[in-house]
Amino acid sequence: MEAEKEMEGIHFEKRQLVAQWQSSLLAISHREDALTAIKKAMHEQQEQEMSIVSEIGRFKKDIQAEQARRPPLRIDPCRLRVCQSSVQSVQ
């Protein structure tokens, strides 16, 4: 009789442990899915960042090439003052 009660207690504890184990496995699975999604999003962000950095580099090269191709603009200071005073008098 006492052995039966002890066996029932052991079976009950076993069922609880199995249920906890399954719950833990499910939680781990959800965490792994979340981690995979985060890693994928990070990879996509890194690719986008590299693309933007590359595009900025191309823009800088284009600007430098255009600046080398064209002489810098020079404005006569006297002419600039005349233009400024003309604009101010119109306002």
Strand residue percentage:
under 5%
Number of domains: 1
Number of beta strands: 0
C-alpha end-to-end distance: 109 Å
Unreliable runs:
none
> What is the approximate shape?
rod-shaped
Order of helices and strands: HH
Radius of gyration, taken over Cα atoms and rounded to an integer in Å: 37 Å
Helicity range of the residues?
Answer: over 70%
* Class derived from helix and strand content: mainly alpha
Number of helices: 2
Mean pLDDT: 91
Largest sheet properties: none
Your description of this structure?
With 91 residues, this protein is an all-alpha fold. It has one domain. Helix content is 90%, strand content 0%. The protein has helices spanning 2-69, 77-90. It is rod-shaped and about 115 Å long.
Characteristic terms for this protein:
mainly alpha, single chain, 90% helix, 2 helices, 91 residues
Question: Mind sketching the topology for me?
Answer:
Elements: H1 2-69, H2 77-90
A few lines on this structure:
This protein has 91 residues and is an all-alpha fold. The protein has helices at 2-69, 77-90.
